[in-house]
Amino acid sequence: MSARSRTGLGRTAGTARTPVQLTALVVGAVFLLVAVLGFIPGITTGYDTLQFAGHESEAKLLGLFQVSILHNLVHGLFGIAGLLLARTVAGARGFLVGGGIVYLLLWLYGLLVDHHSSANFVPLNTADNWLHLGLGAGMIALGLLAPPRPRSTRT
């Protein structure tokens, strides 16, 4: 097999990941970590109230962010998507910018929905809303600003 053969990770052996790919990989890994932590009693307070979905779930990741089984599963899916899409520059950029847009829309949804109504199915609280704003803006900024090519290693 030559040094240019496929590695199975969507890139060629001997080629470095670009900054945008590394960024998407790290963001995806963090989403996966958050998904797992959402299922660990103690790290998630009120774990005994964890519901599949809906505002009735009083479980809070780190005692702050309201979560449900659905919420944790969505974080896990976002994480898997980030890891898979980080295989290419276009995929990494699409994950960061597209995911950022999704989180900005979720932020707007959280601002508009009554947190005590059945429409709050995710569930969301004020801490989640601010986190979603930061995630959305941050992911878009990273997707647009992270260089699409490896840094040159001139000596």
Contiguous low-pLDDT stretches (5 residues minimum) are 1-9
The tally of beta strands, per DSSP, is: 3
What is the radius of gyration?
18 Å
Order of helices and strands: HEEEHHH
Which percent band covers the strand fraction?
under 5%
Distance between the termini: 29 Å
The secondary structure category is: mainly alpha
Q: Which descriptor suits the 3D outline?
A: elongated
Largest sheet: 3 strands, antiparallel
The portion of residues assigned to helices is: 40-55%
Note the total helix count. 4
List the strand order in the largest sheet: 1-2-3
Average the pLDDT over all residues and give the rounded result: 87
Short description:
The chain has 155 residues and is mainly α. Helix content is 52%, strand content 4%.
Structure description:
It contains 4 helices and 3 strands; from the N terminus they run H-E-E-E-H-H-H. The protein is mainly alpha-helical and 155 residues long. Strand 2 and strand 3 form a beta hairpin. Helix 1 crosses helix 3 and helix 3 runs antiparallel to helix 4. The chain is elongated, with a radius of gyration of 18 Å. The N terminus is likely disordered.
Name a few traits of the molecule.
155 residues, mainly alpha, 3-stranded antiparallel beta sheet
Write the layout of secondary structure elements.
Layout: H1 19-37, E1 44-45, E2 60-61, E3 65-66, H2 69-85, H3 89-112, H4 126-145
Antiparallel strand pairs: 1-2, 2-3
